[in-house]
Amino acid sequence: MARRFGKIKRFGYTVSTLILLSFLGGALTHAATDRLKEGDACRDELRSDPERKKDRRQWEQCVEKYKNASSLKKQPRGWYEVGRLYEELYLYSNRLEDIEEAKQYYAKVLQSAPKHPAAADAGRRLEKINPLLAGSANEEGAVLGNIRHWSYPDYTRVVIDLNRPASYKVSRIHASEVLSIHLLQTSPGELFRQKRSFSVSEGILKKIEVKREGRNEVKVLLTFKNLGPYKLIPLTDPDRLVIDVSDVSHPGPAPGAKEIDLTQVNPPQIILPPLVPFNIQTIVIDPGHGGKDPGAIGSTGLTEKEVVLDVSLRLKELIQKRLKKRIIMTRDQDVFIPLEERTLVANAKKADLFVSVHANSSPRPLAQGIEIYLLGRATDENAIATAARENATSEKAARDFQEVILNDLEREFNLNESLEFAHYTQNAFVENLIPKYPTVSLGVKQAPFYVLANTNMPAILAEISFISNRLEEKRLRNPSYRQKVAEALFNGIERYLHSLRVNS
User: Are 370 and 433 in contact (CB under 8 A)?
Assistant: First the structure.
């Protein structure tokens, strides 16, 4: 009898366990379903908001919601939606790793749940993106991956994304409002093999056309309501061409002007920033590098991107508490933001002041000190080298970019405000930081920094120490030193504002 009772107890325990497991399984399913719904809501809101779609962090937030749903309980639809989000994100990021992520999640759906309703669509998506990945590996020339555009009250920016550098020519088509960018040794990517003409209803940009010329050439035709002064600048990491067109009624090149080969001569006229506003209310803080771009790396592994982000966040807190100004961060976490998007943030928000924060590096291990830069002709060879590193390009490309901007800078743009701002900031370092942490004051310098060339307000770039110097790298690891650097930057801003008689 006792034995039978024991079996009943064991059997009863097993039933209870099954009931509990069933209950837990149902709860997990319910929770996963709720998270899928959260992901759907996030995705739908993102797709309906053009501005949010330009912010990588918004995409990553939606991705995480779907991943969380799939981590609770196997959810093939969650994996499929992650793939779709990465595939759509590629249209804005031009990062092939986003397409690779999409491929992995589509493959995961097919492998783990081949009979799920999402599997068939995942297979079709894979067929679509595989040629794109194959095209990116084409060693014969560049691939035109994407064309992005932003429109603002003062200008329109178009970015042509490539998978590697390409030679190009730019010209205005005779007696028209069309700008032609002729890409040599380039083929159209998957996005332009079916549809090659796109209507645009933002700002002065009306239409984008992609035309294949022969076997290895592509023409991108940009049609504007009126084509004013424009500039075209190549950037790397990733490779792309940035075209800015002024939104003013301004005649372009003379009719019949010959095609301009930008591999040999300067591109057209620079768009000039407006005069500095008297009342400064909005300040943009730009921590350099981030995400896949670590910036300079010290001998013990400290990265520029982590140092400058921490210093920038400390600076933000100081300004908000003491000056009560509006602060906009180009990044507030470890994410990669292309140079052209950093300046877009500042210009789109109509910021009044721009501070880019960096840590210096040199092949000379004993190089040390603090220097503040503004835009202009490079002060010396070290300035060219610094600009090349921060522009993520070669010294030759930095010199070429310098020639692009020089004539307009020297002839028309009053640099006094940026120069004064730079001197106030450098003096703040000399008075407040160097007495406690002895180093060299390298002074105020000029260099062709891309991130400064495209800001419509007084702008400086601060190299706060040499991370390549062992002593200064050690200091940069110290929270107290970082705070002191942030306070020096703050004092420079405060003094500049005081010089403008702005009420803080």
Answer: yes
CA dist 447 and 271 (Å) reads: 18
Q: Provide the token pair at 392.
A: 């993520």
Please state, in angstroms and rounded to a whole number, the distance separating the CA atoms of residues 268 and 315: 38
Burial of 503 (0-12, 13-18, 19+ CB in 10 A): exposed
CB 49 within 8 A of CB 59: no
Q: Which amino acid is at 205?
A: L
Q: Name residue, tokens 């325990």.
A: 13
pTM: 0.55
How would you list the strands of the sheet with 230-235, edge to edge? 186-188, 142-151, 155-162, 240-246, 230-235
How many CA within 13 A on the CB side of residue 187? 15
Is the backbone peptide bond immediately before 188 cis, with ω within 30 degrees of 0?
Answer: no
CA diameter of the chain:
109
Amino acid in the structure at residue 311: V
Say whether 472 sits in a helix, a strand or coil: helix
For 457, the 3-state DSSP assignment is coil
- Structure tokens belonging to residue 259: 């095609």
The crossing angle, in degrees rounded to 10, of helices 479-499 and 416-432 is: 140
Best CA proximity match to 161, nearest among 183, 185, 194: 183
For the chain, how far is it from start to end, CA to CA, in angstroms? 89
| Cα gap 500→491, rounded to integer Å | 14
What the block records as the tokens of 1 is 């009898």
Let me know: does 169 contact 159? Beta carbons within 8 Å: no
Helices (H) and strands (E) in the chain, counts: 13, 17
Question: In whole angstroms, what separates CA 222 from the centre of its chain?
Answer: 23
Cβ neighbours of 223 (radius 10 Å): 18
Per-residue confidence in pLDDT tens, the chain, 504 aa:
444 444 444 444 455 554 444 544 554 456 667 788 898 899 888 888 777 777 788 888 899 888 887 665 577 888 899 989 988 887 766 666 788 888 888 888 888 888 888 888 888 888 877 766 655 544 467 888 888 888 776 778 888 988 888 888 888 887 788 999 998 888 888 778 777 888 887 778 889 999 988 778 899 999 998 888 888 878 776 788 888 888 765 443 333 333 333 332 223 222 333 333 457 899 999 999 999 899 999 999 999 999 999 999 999 999 999 999 999 999 999 998 888 788 888 888 888 899 999 999 988 899 999 999 988 777 667 776 776 666 666 666 656 656 555 545 443 334 667 888 998 999 999 999 999 999 999 988 887 787 787 777 889 999 999 999 999 999 999 999 999 999 999 999 999 888 775 433
Q: Which of 35, 36, 88 is nearest to 58 (CA)?
A: 88
What is the 8-class DSSP label of residue 355? Answer: E
